[in-house]
Amino acid sequence: MTRTEQALALFGPGHSCSQAILAAFGPGLGLDEDTALRLGRGLGMGLGRGLTCGAVSGAILVLGLAQGPRQLEERGPRFACYEAAAQFLRRFQDVHGAIACRDLLGLDLGTPEGRRQAQERGLFTSLCPQFVKSAGDILEQVL
Length: 143
What we know:
Layout: H1 3-10, H2 17-25, H3 33-40, H4 44-50, H5 54-67, H6 75-96, H7 101-105, H8 112-120, H9 123-126, H10 128-142
Helix pairs in contact: 1-2, 1-10, 2-3, 2-5, 2-10, 5-6, 5-10, 6-10
């Protein structure tokens, strides 16, 4: 099973998009699954406000784990990580036209009404898995 497939299997049954990405990719980079799930909790639904998609935020954190500097003075890895993040964001936006939940879903998830409509329309089960899959696929390529 690929890490993207693992993320898709984690998504939905109690785990948000950010948690799914972090828990699927993090263990190979030294982040245990329990910590990944706790770390990703607040990123789901675009920080709970329809901002940056949690799958995108989770992927950026994974890139930081994989490519971020280990020492404060290491500038090379820092800028390589920034470039990898920019590449990831460009590719995700090219595929989906946006990186923010409110734009991806067409609803303001920062309001109870927006969240209710998203649930009623089944957007978390029809659209969000596509975003998790894209984030995982792109992340596999960028890593």
